[in-house]
Specification:
Elements lengths: L1 H19 L39 E4 L9 H14 L6 E7 L6 H22 L6 E7 L10 H7 L1 E7 L9
Parallel strand pairs: 2-3
Antiparallel strand pairs: 1-4, 2-4
Helix pairs in contact: 2-3
């Protein structure tokens, strides 16, 4: 009988050992994978104000009385309008061309044309344009606008022409 008990005792011990062990862990579920969120877009670039549309600086002319380099009220208004455009275009320079009618000697008209150009330049500088952006030249009576030997023609020839010039040497931005 003893032989029967051994296997039973052995089975009991085995059964007791089997119960004393912790139950096996349930099969591990796969760890939930983090759902990959799409990368957030880069922050928008800082908004820079768009540069103002390029302002065209329009050539202009101002007119003088006979034998005078004094600026008339109409000339001052024209210079103010020219200044308003030119200050928005610091890349441009201005050439002021002094002109005279045909009366008077060549030397006298060259000097008067220069005084007229200098008068307009001084006015623009006083408004705020840097003097280095303005050049002057006198053509005297060499570049008449209107042909003729009467007051109507002469009044058109007593003038300063304000010419905006690009940064390229000698090219008018017309």
């Amino acid at each position: 009988m003893r032989s029967v008990r051994v296997p039973i005792a052995f089975a009991i011990i085995l059964a007791a050992c089997a119960h004393s062990q912790p139950p096996p862990a349930p099969p591990a579920e796969p760890a939930p994978q983090a759902v990959a969120e799409p990368p957030s877009p880069p922050p928008p670039a800082p908004v820079r104000p768009s540069p103002p549309a390029s302002v065209d600086v329009v050539p202009a002319s101002i007119y003088f009385d006979f034998d005078s380099a004094d600026l008339k009220p109409e000339a001052r208004s024209t210079l103010q309008a020219f200044f308003d455009q030119a200050r928005q275009r610091p890349d441009l320079t201005t050439r002021i061309e002094g002109n005279c009618d045909e009366r008077g000697s060549e030397e006298y008209n060259l000097a008067l044309g220069q005084r007229r150009a200098d008068s307009a330049k001084s006015y623009l500088v006083n408004l705020g344009i840097d003097a280095s952006r303005i050049s002057t030249i006198s053509y005297g009576k060499e570049h008449p606008r209107a042909p003729g030997d009467d007051e109507a023609a002469w009044s058109q020839n007593r003038r300063d022409d304000l010419v905006p010039v690009t940064s390229a040497v000698g090219q008018a931005s017309r």
